[in-house]
User: Fold this.
Amino acid sequence: MPLEDLPDWLPAWCLDHLGGEPADVLFQLQQVSMVFGLRLPGGTDVVVKARADDGRAVSCVAAQARLAERGFPCARPLTPVVGVGSLAVHAEEFRPGGEVLQGDSPDVAARCAEVFARLMTELADVTVAPPLPNPPWVRWDHTGSGVWPAIDGLDTRDQSAVPAYVVDTAVRARGRLLAAGLPCVLGHAVWAVHDWDSLAWQPEAALAGAASGAFASAGPPTLAPIESSEAFLVAYQDIRGRLFTAVEQEIAWAASLWMAAYNIWEALHGDTPLSGDALRAQAAERLRRANA
Assistant:
């Protein structure tokens, strides 16, 4: 992206909060957030993130800063969250390099669980305002009348495009999750190192369960094999040093189903339909384990 194509507000924001306007653009990405890799005068590289200000960003960045201070391998925030019109904006270190661990085998699952458990351990004594509303892919606790959380641009589309088995799975998994009555904790809704906007306020077992199903989603969202989700949950509990109760075990399996069903619902209303074969094949067994 040429410098002249940056949003109008960004150069002045960098000058005010980072001490200089961008000298070069390293990269630009946009999904839920707008992310800009920028080189400042003097050669310092930074990342600026801007997303719709729904009230979550302040808590997410504060928690990220606490863990970075303790040596957790995440980018250190360089600024607090600043409001720019309807956007919440902050800057953080640019940490290039590294590779995403690919695969959905039990061995890969256990390695992912190690990172997730370390993260949850570090977050256990971080006190911030709950980052609510939760990310939509773990927002089974929404207060709407339908199955899915309200999302502009999706609610008005043809819901008949969603297969009945996806809706049924979501209804049953959500019912089990809402009936549990477990306390909520601060944790990640899957991406544990770089996507701090995905912090959530849900029961620990539910967050671990959601991650156990989605850990292999390095590209399009997918549902891991059942034996790999089981390996993830076993490794997670071992590293955390406590076994889930029977109810927590059920909630973990229910959360893995909710996220998978949500991802299919969202994708069927987008530009890239997502295959539901894994959910179709695994739903009955996962629902059995969830007691749903």
About this structure: Strands lie at 24-30, 34-39, 45-52, 82-84, 87-93, 185-188, 199-202.
